Every structure is written in C-alpha cells, then in structure tokens.
Amino acid sequence: MTYINIASIIKTGRSNERYLSNFLKIKYGANFSTYIDSHRIEESKKLLLSKENDNFTIETIANMAGFHSKLPFNIAFKATMGFTPSEFRKNHISSEKSLQINLMFLTRASF
Predict the structure, then answer these.
(1) From first to last of its 111 residues, what are the pLDDT tens digits of the chain?
(2) Are 72 and 66 in contact (CB under 8 A)?
(3) How many beta carbons lie within 10 A of that of residue 63, not counting itself?
(4) What fold characterizes domain 6-109?
(5) Cα separation of 104 and 111, whole Å?
(6) What is the pTM of this model?
(7) What does the DSSP assignment read for the chain?
C-alpha cells in the first residue's frame, strides 16, 4: 500500500507545501494530516462494517485504510468517532443482531 503524505504530493510537482497547507486550512479548516485521516476514518468505517472483513483484525483494517499501525488509527478513530474501532464494530454487530431479533419477532407476531 502506498501511504499518502504531504511530501509525496509535493514530489509530483503539482503543488508546494505552503500552498497545499493553506488551501486545506481555508477550504476544509484542517491541516494535511487531519484532512487525510478523516478520509481514512471514513474508509475504515466501511471496512469495519463489511461482512467480507469480519475475520480481519483491527490492525489489518487500519492498514487497508492507510494507517501505518494500530495505535495512530485507534487515536484518530476515537478522536473522530468518540469510541474505538473495536467498540464501533462490536456496537454495530450488536445493533444488527437486535434488529434481526426484532424483525423475527414482528414477523411471528403478524401471523
């Protein structure tokens, strides 16, 4: 996986660090790292909720979303979402099971 950082973008010759930093600050109110992390968090949420990824560890999901390791992923995720990736996954699974139970109950009750 290729990790995006400000230096890799500058190397393309399409911008300079000062311009890119100012642009992100004005347009999105965030520095480069925060901006990229927000996209990585959104991607990780999709990955965590995908049934295809149920057997993947949190660290694998973090890597798939573009984080170098589990610790910065957990810190960024908790700062953004208010809970850890493990809690996010667990709460979603619990909510999904509750919904299935409620649907089964409603289906049986309607007969």
Answers:
(1) 556 777 777 777 667 788 888 888 999 898 888 888 999 999 999 999 998 999 999 999 999 999 999 999 999 999 999 999 999 998 886 555 554 555 555 566 555
(2) no
(3) 18
(4) Arc Repressor Mutant, subunit A (1.10.10)
(5) 11
(6) 0.72
(7) -PPP-HHHHHHTTS--HHHHHHHHHHHHSS-HHHHHHHHHHHHHHHHHH-GGGTTS-HHHHHHHHT-SSHHHHHHHHHHHHSS-HHHHHHHHHHHHHHHHHHHHHHHHHT-
15 Cβ neighbours under 8 A, 6+ residues apart: 9
pLDDT at 108 (0 to 100): 60
Domain spans of the chain? 6-109
- CB within 8 Å of 24: residues ≥ 6 apart: 30, 31, 32, 35
Length of the chain: 111
φ, ψ of residue 56 to 5 degrees: the values are -80, 140
